[in-house]
């Protein structure tokens, strides 16, 4: 799917399959295209090009949408209704809703059942919004930055509730800017930036990239770069301004191997790659690939 807004390409030819039972973390910086992707899956917007299918059908078809639960970044709740009334009201739209008491327990809302939603704190409101996303026992749950603004305890309650619901077999997608959140929740991680999927893998594989280190050096013989490609645990290999950078999950092994192979180099530098750098490495590789194919 591709989605443009005038001159902005929010999603650029993305192909993605959300499988039954997966707990998916969608990681990307501001403006990456995460919310746009969720809005296409939930049928709130149409793609400019391409096709989106929800349970094999049209995301705008009520028969498919009844199996979907979502929490957008901002949720409007009727401020004079009580928490319990809102849960009952939303649950009443579904054929087999969760029991109100059970749901409120799951999200730590039991003590707030009689509170008007207008009197809830931001964090409590957020938990209620996520609870409402699952009250109808959806098979697919889309949560857009569900823990933004939550303190540590509220975040933990929400994560536990999401994990608990996922254990019942639903597919859950959570977007976030934070690796910590994705690490705590997701089994599969989709990294998205500039409207493109940069990586889509299980959590350990993504962490291996993020936990990677840069080994930077200047090669005496630039052609030697070909001898670096099969170094141990190499995630990425790039060259800039005469410097060669190897992104690797095992920098010690890379350095040992460089010496063993008698590669002539100078200015050796080893340092950790942050999540941001890992993003960057993925983005750079992406644009380098595009450049090569243009
Ligand atoms: N309705 C719209 N009109 C114009 N541009 C839009 C619209 N919606 C999104 N965009 C643009 O599309 C790009 C992707 O936005 P999107 O909201 O999907 O990103 P995001 O990854 O969800 O970001 P954030 O983490 O900040 O929520 C951005 O450049 C954004 O400005």
UniProtKB/TrEMBL annotation:
Keywords: Antibiotic resistance, ATP-binding, Nucleotide-binding, Transport. InterPro entries: AAA+_ATPase, ABC_transporter-like_ATP-bd, ABC_transporter-like_CS, ABC_transporter_ATP-binding, P-loop_NTPase. Transmembrane segments: none annotated. It is found in: Cell membrane. Residues 2-219 form the ABC transporter domain. The keyword Nucleotidyltransferase does not apply. One of its GO terms (biological process) is response to antibiotic. Its main location: membrane. One of its GO terms (cellular component) is plasma membrane. Pfam families: ABC_tran. It is a peripheral membrane protein. This is ABC transporter, ATP-binding protein. PANTHER family: ABC TRANSPORTER ATP-BINDING PROTEIN (PTHR42711:SF17). One of its GO terms (molecular function) is ATP hydrolysis activity. It comes from the Bacteria. Signal peptide: none annotated. The keyword Transmembrane helix does not apply.
